[in-house]
Amino acid sequence: MRIVLMGPPGAGKGTQARRLSESTGMKHLSTGDMLRAEVASGSELGLLAKEFMDRGDLVPDSNIIAMIQQHIDDPAGVLLDGFPRTVVQAKALDQALEKSNSPVDQVIHMSVDIDELVERLSNRALCGDCQTPYNLESNPPSKAGKCDKCGGPVAVRVDDRPEAVTHRMKVYQELTAPVLDYYKSHGNVVEILATGSPDEVFEKLSHAIKSRMPGVKAN
Ligand code: AP5
Ligand code: MG
Hints:
Blueprint: E1 2-6, H1 13-24, E2 27-30, H2 31-41, H3 44-55, H4 61-68, E3 78-81, H5 87-99, E4 106-111, H6 114-122, E5 124-127, E6 133-135, E7 154-155, H7 162-184, E8 189-193, H8 198-212
Parallel strand pairs: 1-3, 1-4, 2-3, 4-8
Antiparallel strand pairs: 5-6, 5-7
Helix pairs in contact: 1-8, 2-3
The structure holds BIS(adenosine)-5'-pentaphosphate (AP5) and magnesium ion.
């Protein structure tokens, strides 16, 4: 089972993919989380990626495809979060999945209006170890700067500064919105209005997944 969660920065892909992974047993694959781990480890890929990420630009397709390729065939199924983000990546994913005869089953497009996205990102902080997201206004960690789940350091992402957020939105429109059109032409896109509480959004997503794939346990 392969599910792609799409949506602009701040749509709630990471928040919901985590919950869906717990409820379905599918593996959560976030290219953003993988890249942040590379940056934290100081690897060659991390050093290259950091420059692109801090500006809010996409990391080159070749690096992303090489990084994710070995993970997409997980027998538990995968929930893709933040990948594919260009049409080149979407085609590379299709090609890789062709080999195992298990194409993308469902693409869920999470939409949220721009003002709410900017508000969410300006209040976001993230655990540097387990990547749990917090909202410093409505859902802060119980102890400032410390993750409730793992005790790791909670900090604001460099690319959540206002100028980087504006650039990420533009990059989304230019390079990632066409991926949605690519999937629409395949006819497997479900539209979700991803506003309301995280619980409400989770209900909508679980319903969408179950109605397409009745065998999946999604709550
Ligand atoms: P990535 O980490 O994927 O960032 P993004 O797509 O910009 O998305 P975000 O993580 O900002 O948002 P999200 O949708 O996950 O929302 P979240 O759940 O956190 O990518 C970062 C960078 O890495 C890219 O810019 C690029 O440089 C590089 N990169 C990654 N993948 C790449 C690829 N495939 N190709 C090339 N480069 C790549 O929620 C946001 C906030 O809102 C949180 O505070 C959360 O608590 C809150 N929230 C969530 N849901 C709700 C709700 N329903 N109501 C109120 N608040 C909510
Ligand atoms: Mg995310």
